[in-house]
Design brief:
Length: about 350
């Protein structure tokens, strides 16, 4: 099931954050990435990544058991990694990053714990990039005015059991300063045991004035994740929730793909924008596989020292691209529970 929300409104909203002439090379690069057909397994000579996903810090002010970046739900034993303004400037002067349209200031921790976050947004905006912040929102009231003035393009606040009470008190006020989008991971237990609470969550976000609500199906991810919480679109409780929510909120709710390894026609659903568009990097320069994956296929290289070719056309990534392009090859095991399959492109 593809996201039902029209992207036209999102594109129009982001257009106002582009800066000219700084954004022109980013726009050209974006168009190149979208018009190449068939998809090349080695796109580096044709275009550079259009999106960078940066794990700003590996510290968090929440401890969610299902977090795939935490060790048994915590970050306490991990060496500290953090992007600084100096690191950002170094990285975005390279051919790999300088023409990326989008820069997602994301997890691996809570990005608002990064001490240079406002300066980083200001710098990236001045260079013509669109900056997207993914946060749990707990620190956002302290930062939202400064981030807005710095040129932040979009804010996405994830909703968890651990921050829902805070958001009920603060989300509407934050939306008056900079309208945000929200996201929530649905579990099978929620659908089957507490559907009324899910209905209430959707109603709350809508009334708070957010731009949209992205709903994701739960998938195995991290040591604390229970595979029993996954589900497909065939689950009766999901069908009921989808039908009543879609009827009441229409395009406000953005549904993610619900394909899992249990799908019988998975070969026909091998669509992955991440492999051709995005490079995720942490503060130490380590490059993972995609946004949301803890698998590190490029452990032999580093974003601060390796070339664009070595990073974007790394043999492990090329191998994955070949598997996605070949209609006779099954989906790689590491991708079978991904809820970004068939996700509409940015």
């Amino acid at each position: 099931m593809k996201g039902s929300t029209s992207r036209i409104g999102l594109y129009l909203e982001l257009l106002k954050y582009l800066k000219f002439p700084q954004s022109v090379p980013k726009i050209v690069n974006y168009i190149k990435s979208k018009t190449l057909r068939p998809l090349p397994v080695n796109p580096c000579s044709r275009y550079s990544p259009i999106q960078m996903s940066l794990s700003m810090v590996n510290r968090c002010n929440l401890r969610c058991s299902y977090c795939g970046d935490a060790q048994d739900g915590t970050f306490d034993n991990a060496p500290k990694k953090e992007f600084t303004l100096e690191k950002i400037k170094q990285l975005f002067q390279t051919p790999l990053c300088k023409n990326a349209m989008y820069v997602n200031l994301a997890g691996g921790g809570e990005p608002l714990l990064c001490k240079d976050i406002v300066k980083i947004v200001e710098y990236l905006s001045s260079q013509g990039h669109l900056t997207l912040l993914t946060t749990n929102g707990l620190l956002l009231p302290k930062f939202i005015e400064r981030l807005t003035k710095a040129g932040l393009s979009k804010i996405s606040i994830s909703i968890y059991p651990t921050n829902i009470d805070f958001l009920r008190e603060n989300l509407a006020a934050m939306n008056k300063i900079h309208r945000v989008q929200n996201s929530h991971v649905i579990t099978r237990s929620e659908l089957e045991k507490t559907p009324d609470q899910l209905d209430d969550l959707v109603a709350f976000v809508y009334k708070a004035g957010s731009t949209r609500l992205r709903l994701w199906n739960c998938r195995p991810y991290g040591k604390g994740q229970e595979s029993s919480e996954t589900f497909t679109s065939e689950l009766p409780a999901f069908k009921d929730f989808y039908e009543r929510t879609s009827a009441k909120y229409k395009k406000f709710v953005d549904w993610q793909s619900l394909h899992t390894a249990s799908d019988t026609n998975i070969k026909a659903k091998k669509i992955c924008r991440e492999l051709w568009q995005l490079v995720p990097i942490d503060g130490g320069g380590i490059i993972t596989t995609c946004c949301g994956s803890a698998v590190n296929l490029r452990s032999d290289i580093n974003a601060f020292s390796s070339t664009s070719e070595e990073i974007f056309n790394h043999p492990a990534i090329v191998n994955l691209r070949e598997k996605f392009i070949d209609p006779d090859v099954d989906l790689p095991d590491m991708c079978k529970y991904c809820n970004l399959l068939e996700d509409p492109p940015m």
